[in-house]
């Protein structure tokens, strides 16, 4: 049975769209996952980084080829390859987060599934809803529409474009 996972991609430095596209493609090329689809691109103000450039975000739907911990390690390697320099709370060339892994609920050192903050992030929920309108939070069972409706005011994201990055077979 395929293990469908969702990976959030974001960038606010450098060639933001190109960095996201490169990271999405590297998920497949580096053997981390088989890329199925990537959402459109969404632009948002940075959270907790005053004065920083705006982020471009997307979500990739993938078939995971490894267990969650191995997939996360491969994602960190891809971040380094694309040129990530900033840490949490800093501007960065690329940021990859494992949002969901086959609906698993997991708490392990360095890995919490689903991602512990995804349900509070408009820049994750909107592209995730685009790819998986029937998605339900594995922890709470809440449908994605309810998660989006529960977002606080002021977390605006704007769909700014996209691509037809759909991989077949």
State the shape: globular
- Listing every helix as H and every strand as E from the N terminus to the C terminus, the arrangement reads EHEEEHEEEHHE
Low-confidence stretches: 164-169
Mean pLDDT: 90
Provide the β-strand percentage band: 25-35%
In DSSP terms (H or I, runs of 4 or more residues), the helix count works out at: 4
- Quick one: CATH class? Alpha Beta
CATH topology, what is it called?
Alpha-Beta Plaits
User: From the helix content, strand content and strand pairing, which structural class follows?
Assistant: alpha+beta
Total strands: the figure is 8
Using brief descriptors, characterize the structure shown:
single chain; alpha+beta; 169 residues; disordered C terminus; 27% helix
């Amino acid at each position: 049975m395929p293990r469908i996972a969702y990976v959030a991609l974001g960038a606010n430095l450098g060639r933001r769209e190109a960095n996201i596209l490169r990271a999405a493609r590297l998920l497949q090329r580096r053997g981390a996952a088989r890329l199925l689809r990537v959402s459109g691109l969404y632009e948002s103000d940075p959270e907790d980084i005053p004065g920083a450039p705006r982020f471009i975000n997307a979500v990739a739907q993938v078939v995971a080829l490894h267990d969650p911990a191995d997939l996360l390690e491969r994602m960190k390697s891809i971040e380094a390859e694309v040129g990530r320099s900033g840490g949490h709370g800093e501007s960065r060339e690329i940021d990859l987060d494992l949002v969901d892994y086959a609906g698993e609920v997991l708490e392990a050192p360095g890995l919490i599934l689903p991602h512990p903050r995804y349900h509070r992030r408009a820049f994750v929920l909107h592209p995730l809803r685009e790819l998986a309108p029937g998605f339900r939070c594995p922890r709470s069972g809440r449908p994605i529409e309810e998660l989006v409706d529960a977002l606080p005011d002021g977390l605006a994201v704007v769909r700014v474009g996209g691509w037809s990055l759909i991989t077949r077979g």
